[in-house]
Amino acid sequence: MIITVILGFWMAWNIGANDVANSMGTAVGAKAITPKQAAVIAGVMNFTGAYFFGKSVTETIRKGILNVNMIHDPWIIVYGSLAALLAASIWLIFATYNGLPVSTTHSIIGGVVGYGLVYAGASIVDWGKLAQVVLSWILSPIFGAVVAFFVFKAVRRSILVRKDPVKSARYWAPFWIGLAFVVIGTMFYIKVLHGESLFHGVLVYGIPTGIVIFVLSYLLIRLHFRPNDPYLGVESIFRKVQVVTSAYVALAHGSNDVANAVGPIAAAYAVITMGLSGMEVPIPRWILAMGGLGIAIGIFMYGYKVMETVGKKITELTNTRGFSIDFSAATVILVASWLGMPISTTHTVVGAVVGVGLARGIKAINTSILKDIVISWFVTVPVAAAISAVIFKALLLLG
Amino acid sequence: MQVWTKLFAKSPFKPLIKHADVVLETVETLEKALQAWYDGNYEEMDKLAVEVDRLEDVADRIKEEIRDSLSSKLMMAVAREDVLIYLHMQDKVADAAEDTAKWLLVKRPEKISPEIKDLILEMGRESIKAAKLVYEAIVQMDRVIESGFSEGEINREYEIIRQIESVENKIDSLDTRLMQIVFENAGGMEWSEGFYILNIARTLSNISDKAKDSAERIRLMMNK
Quick one: B11-222 is in which CATH superfamily? Predict the structure, then answer.
């Protein structure tokens, strides 16, 4: 058990150290925030996202992929979780070393499938659920792209092409921040207060939160001086907006990716403390908190360095574009978390970047990365599953 | 992390602006050489003509670098062919300036009438205008994209393109006048003299021709 916790914590640390840079990269690259600020925002927001919104996805990884009722020995789940975490880590280290854009989420799912197959064959895997999850991997970047395409078009239409772009930005920038809070408020109602009706959530929590935030940010976002160039003015307004949307991304990231680390821990913990019936009770909050903490520590120890590098490398991104990417990706990821779909944050953000590119918003995007991503969809699960299977077998023989 | 370093490619516009800057410097140096030629200061002219040649080389190198960086895998706000053809045309502006410089070095214009010399000098001055406008046009193109192709910025770009076209028109008519003068006085002129003058005029009008071709490409970039 202790080994599983350590491994899970290490996984969380890794997510904080590496994946967070992917979610905060656009904000740091567009010079909206410094790497240090990004680390603080990412740390706090990832923890918040993990703690409040991380449950559904964690449940999917804990008991959605495998039919746990078919497992009769609690130790199988402990060994299996261990094997899945180890396999995912090994594959991630290998892939990162070779520069492949592999997803932590995809690896951990592969790992879970791997030990399941070795233990009970194909029948234990809930193929329908797995197909849904895999479909969500393909859809999330596409949705990211579609949303970002329209968000950027909307920014263009409502602000950039106007006679007085700065004046329009003064109204529209708070609108977008407000809209982000409509989503967050609704999520809070459904996930934390366990509200039932989505309509009720949007109406009673989402929209009022959005309006309050709209008014607040309208009062807060003021230009102290108006630059001669209207686009510089718009960008400097959106630089402030991006501080908020990057926090939004970090929240979404925490809500989805914490599961990669704590899903297996939660599975192991439940069976050790309560036996097989433990799988029926919901995961305790402290496990989510621990995952969030692991991510935060990873960010503070190493992640901010990665962000520094990323920030230096992305020099061509402006704030209106960075905002469109952040807002779209975060919204798609949060919705996925709400549905309990473990998706790849990085791939969704890449999708959003391409969406803005398709709207002629970015001067040059290297599309060769897209091929790498599509390849990674097909390679990651089988490879991580194979590694996990081998480790699981070895653990069974040793244990 | 690698995702980001791979995903965002460098915008080709900053290097294009840099290239336009060198092209403009080439044409400006040529105009100085023409002035020295006009004043009969041949030593100075030779030095400046060599400088024109050197600047053209610099422009060529930047052109190569931009070409190498524009992989076909890039997704850009403007079509890749448009950028490449634009670059080619912009580079031809410097090429034409170099051609003029070469002709200047061929012989000394002792017997050329002041009327012809005036015309050639004026063509040189107009060429600078064309090169300056090309520089402005590519800077403005960057802004057009930054603004998300807003109507106002596009119109400003059209205005620059119109100015380039009118400069080209003016140089064209100067060129025609020069040809007429040469042929009217053909009787009292050595053939080498006429050949020399006409070639200087032809290469000079080439500068604005290529400037116009560059402008045409920018027009295409703004099409949806």
Answer: Phosphate transport system protein phou homolog 2; domain 2 (1.20.58.220)
